[in-house]
Design goal:
Blueprint lengths: L1 H9 L5 H19 L15 H16 L3 H7 L5 H13 L20 H4 L2 H6 L3
Length: 128
């Protein structure tokens, strides 16, 4: 899997760390929304929307990096939720994520503004 992540990241403006973050953040989001994976469960039953994933990635960033969430994401060239979408679709192209026929890059457009969603006051008060 690591080779696929490296290969996918080289085809974009985002570093490997950004791909690892989004890949791990997907697991975090799915678990938050659907709980632990049940043996034999249909993978489609654990699908998350672009909007759900963006919100989950925000919460994951705050959990992982606290007040440094926004600077860390910025260092990885992630400045808006559409950047998450570009990484997700690169992971899909690499065979590391699945999508449904209804999923599109536009699902990640303007979900939130990083200056508001990752502001220090909100991060300090977050229970994420």
């Amino acid at each position: 899997m690591e080779q696929k992540l490296i290969s996918a990241s080289r085809k974009t403006k985002y570093p490997l760390d950004a791909f690892i973050f989004v890949h791990n953040g997907l697991d975090f989001t799915v678990q938050q929304l659907h709980g632990k994976k049940q043996e034999g469960a249909d993978p489609g039953s654990r699908h998350v929307t672009g909007r759900d994933l963006c919100i989950g990635l925000r919460n994951f960033a705050i959990k992982q990096y606290g007040l440094m969430a926004r600077p860390v994401l910025s260092k990885w060239n992630i400045h808006k939720t559409t950047d998450f979408g570009h990484i997700v679709f690169a992971l899909i192209d690499a065979g590391l994520m699945l999508k449904t026929a209804d999923d599109s890059l536009e699902d990640f457009d303007s979900i939130y503004d990083f200056s508001e969603a990752l502001c220090p006051d909100l991060v300090l008060g977050s229970k994420a």
